[in-house]
Design a protein that fits this description.
homodimer, alpha/beta, Rossmann fold, globular
Chain lengths: 343, 343
């Protein structure tokens, strides 16, 4: 395993979407490593997960830029001179992407093309790590899904994330941009919004259990998923960024023990001592873009750079519940439009 | 084979990019069928191929709208009440897409998403035929390339055309939009721009031979391609539009006898009695996005609706040369920026 302190010491790192769920956890890890100059770009688009509270305690150690990635002149200035870009910005909601496809296209394609053009022109030697999604595969033909699986995205979000992956790898091939794509599965942990379920069903279930509510299982709740605790995802980002061998590659993340939605709900009820389970019919607009059972093979990234998740589900969920017991009120927004959850 | 006259008689047809190369040939065929109301949307973006001359002789029989597909209110109005949309608008240049990727994204993704949203809202039962490109496959793993071949576009244009295909098929799956995608190979024939080579290398070679110039072969000129005469492509469009069985499908076009770039040049020199051949090194910016040998299997569309090309290459080239002898001056624009050709 690489010594991440020695890799990043003295380096300048830019995180797009850095005030969001994964971005702010990454920023905290980089600050904790020590000796890293951390800059954050976040446009704080409402409901996308970016918040100042996520940066509480490190706000004086990071340089925060309230800038939209589509602002080419500003982005060109910000990418100049940095050593690493962790490109986490984007719309993450599958359902939202169907309701407002043009906005998803703006945030997931136009923005990344603007960033890549800025890098090509002003910082061609930077390393850029792009976070994509397992959604690019669509309904799996076999399990676990590896990187050779056919690509058939089932919603506008998946289509646009796939195009953004292609852009990153194209810029690698044509211009030598040091780009790499990670396809994330369900990531959970502290600093994920609880006010709606558009960042995935896990925070929605966590909130429901903590509040003693009914956790609704679509269909039989037997859809299996692989869950990654956010610290493991942050480690994957840092290891991927640190390695030259990852340039131009695509890697799945994943977890060794897939769990059903029903099992997750039971685990949360056990951990919180609250909440109940109820099976409900699959809402039609959800079923149309649902992917059924899904879990990924992460053997490619494990072979390449030794990454594997370390946090057990029970530990990760306990840490998450503990965080929200203290800070949950910052992740509830009474003005947010409540949509039913996505699995 | 379907009786196209009876299918389209009394129908209202909208052609996007209808003043361009393939669009104007399609409009002429529909007018020739008789009894069809033909509307054309074209934004006449310079250098994209749309021209009023292409509509000469049918200008009083078509309804022409100088509108950009990204103009949602105007497009919503235009799609209302039509029976068929032939969606041919878009940027076609691979090299241009690398020089101005954001424009390619606007023309090849934003525009189509706007059109599909308009259809979803204002004309959900319309049939829409989208013209995509073999470029979505990237460098072929095997020949001929069928529709199961892996997708790995090699340039921004291919990435965006692939995303646009996905949008069309997604709208079919989620909303029942009657969409179908055709993946075109090299199409040639009357009404293709001769002033630059961004609509493919064929018109560039035709012009070169007619003017007695040197036809430059990149590398050894042995790259094999399948060429479709535009009338055959128009027939594919009309047959695909007319069939319910094509809804939600993707079909390659193609030709039975692939030909090398060198053989094509020799054929043109034989037909015109002019021109010379010279082998030159592959320009680097071309080689990076070149796909090598490429020809498609068209057996899927042949099985489904009986389409196959009817025009021999020699006949098609002779008809094309004859057209440009009469009208070539309308396809030369001295102000167009001349780029070297693409194979």
């Amino acid at each position: 395993m690489l010594d991440l302190y020695n890799v990043y010491k003295g380096c300048s790192v830019l995180i797009t979407g850095g005030a969001g769920f994964i971005g702010s956890n990454l920023a905290r890890s980089l600050i904790a490593l020590g000796g890293v100059k951390v800059s954050i770009v976040d446009s704080f688009i409402p409901d996308q997960g970016g918040s100042l509270f996520n940066l509480q305690g490190i706000e004086h150690q990071v340089e925060l830029h309230r800038v939209d990635l589509r602002d080419a002149p500003a982005i060109s200035h910000l990418v100049s001179g940095v050593d690493y870009v962790f490109n986490l910005a984007g719309n993450v909601s599958h359902l939202e992407s169907m309701l407002n496809p043009q906005l998803d296209l703006e945030l997931n394609c136009v923005a990344h093309l603007t960033l890549l053009e800025a890098i090509r022109q002003y910082n061609p030697h930077v390393k850029i790590v792009f976070t994509s999604t397992r959604q690019v595969y669509g309904k799996p033909l076999y399990l676990p899904v590896d990187e050779q699986h056919r690509l058939a995205p089932l919603d506008v979000n998946g289509i646009n994330k796939l195009a953004a992956e292609h852009y990153h790898l194209l810029y690698h091939r044509i211009y030598g941009t040091r780009a790499v794509c990670l396809r994330l599965t369900n990531t959970y942990g502290p600093r994920q919004l609880l006010c709606h379920d558009r960042q995935g069903f896990i925070p929605w279930f966590i909130r429901g259990a903590m509040e003693g509510k009914v956790l609704e299982l679509f269909g039989d709740g037997k859809q299996r998923r692989d869950l990654n605790y956010v610290d493991d995802v942050v480690e994957a980002l840092l290891l991927t960024g640190a390695s030259e061998a990852t340039d131009g590659e695509i890697y799945n993340l994943g977890a060794p023990d897939p769990i059903s939605v029903a099992e997750l709900a039971a685990e949360l009820i056990s951990l919180t001592g609250r909440g109940q389970i109820r099976a409900v019919p699959f809402p039609r607009e959800r079923q149309l873009i649902d992917i059924g059972n899904f879990y990924s093979s992460y053997s490619k990234i494990e072979s390449a750079i030794g990454w594997r998740p370390h946090t057990s589900l029970r530990t990760g969920l306990a840490l998450t519940i503990d965080y929200y017991k203290k800070h949950g009120q910052h992740y509830l927004d009474p003005h947010a439009h409540l949509l039913s959850r996505s699995n």
